[in-house]
Amino acid sequence: MSPILRRRPVFEGNGKILFAGPEPGTLIQYFKDEFPSKDAVGEEVISGRGVINNRLSEFLMSGLQRMGVDNQFIKRLNMREQLIQETEAIPLEIKIRNMAYGAFAKHFNLLEGAFLPRALVEYRYLSEDGESVLVNEEHLSLFDWICPHELEDMKLMALRANYFLSGVFFAEGINLAAVRFRFGRLWDEEDFSLVIADEISADNCDLVMGENLFYQNRSEAYYQAVANRLNLFSSAFSPLKGGSC
């Protein structure tokens, strides 16, 4: 039996499995190759997807920490796992749009692929059944989902992180069309601090590298191009073509 199957998951999502960590207040985050198929029936597999997302999330989260943007990342454990701090999840996703693509471009009659005049902030409430609903600050205040000062802090963290990520990707010939952030409360006895939670990977970053390397077509070539352009692995190792995990 696989060591992964012998452990009891704390949570399993589309791209990851969370297990109890070695110390109280920690979790082990395991990145999967499987993801829901486009028709929402069954799963698809991209070999090495989890390896690339694990390494990319380590690379970007570590960079944000050096910039003073707090997050739950502690360290990478192996090719597919990383150690993270356990946080109280906040049921809100902040999406930052930098470019016009897809339905957004169509709805607002914008040129496909055009850069927006400034970063656009969107809020999505995350329901218990896994659905996300587009909301505004009035919804969040009316239903008492989050304190106004917390929301402002999260917005500023997301914008600062977006600025950093956009520069990192642009330097390697990649445009960051949009990115989605999730947050958590990291408790220390009776007080807490806000941190960016979950992951920052090729799954929650909408990346554009050309007509055939586009976030709406997340293929093996897409993930491999991200890894190659950011030089995430040595040239001798390609996670999509083999290697120990």
Provide a descriptive summary of the structure in words.
The protein is α+β, with helices and mostly antiparallel strands and 245 residues long. It folds into two domains: 3-86 and 221-229, Phosphorylase Kinase, domain 1, CATH 3.30.200.20; 88-208, ATP-grasp fold, B domain (D-amino Acid Aminotransferase, Chain A, domain 1), CATH 3.30.470.20. It is 27% helix and 34% strand. It has six helices and 13 strands. Strands 8, 9, 10, 11, 12 and 13 form a six-stranded antiparallel sheet that branches. Strand 1 and strand 2 (16-20) form a beta hairpin. It starts with a helix and ends in a 16-residue tail after the last helix. Residues 241-245 have low confidence and may be disordered.
Put the structure in a nutshell:
By secondary structure, this protein is of the alpha+beta class. It has helices at residues 3-6, 49-66, 102-107, 137-142, 148-170, 220-229, and strands spanning 9-12, 16-20, 26-31, 34-36, 43-45, 73-76, 81-85, 88-99, 115-126, 132-135, 175-188, 191-197, 205-208.
SSE string: HEEEEEHEEEHEEHHEEEH
CATH classification class of the largest domain? Alpha Beta
Under CATH, the homologous superfamily of the largest domain reads ATP-grasp fold, B domain
Sheet with the most strands? 6 strands, antiparallel
Distance between the termini: 16 Å
Low-confidence stretches: 241-245
Instruction: Supply the number of structural domains.
Output: 2
CATH topology of the largest domain: D-amino Acid Aminotransferase, Chain A, domain 1
Helical residue percent band: 25-40%
Quaternary status: single chain
Overall average residue pLDDT: 89
* CATH A-level architecture of the largest domain: 2-Layer Sandwich
Treating each run of at least 4 consecutive H or I residues as one helix, how many helices? 6
Structural class, judged by helices and strands?
Answer: alpha+beta
Strand content: 25-35%
Shape: globular
Radius of gyration: 18 Å
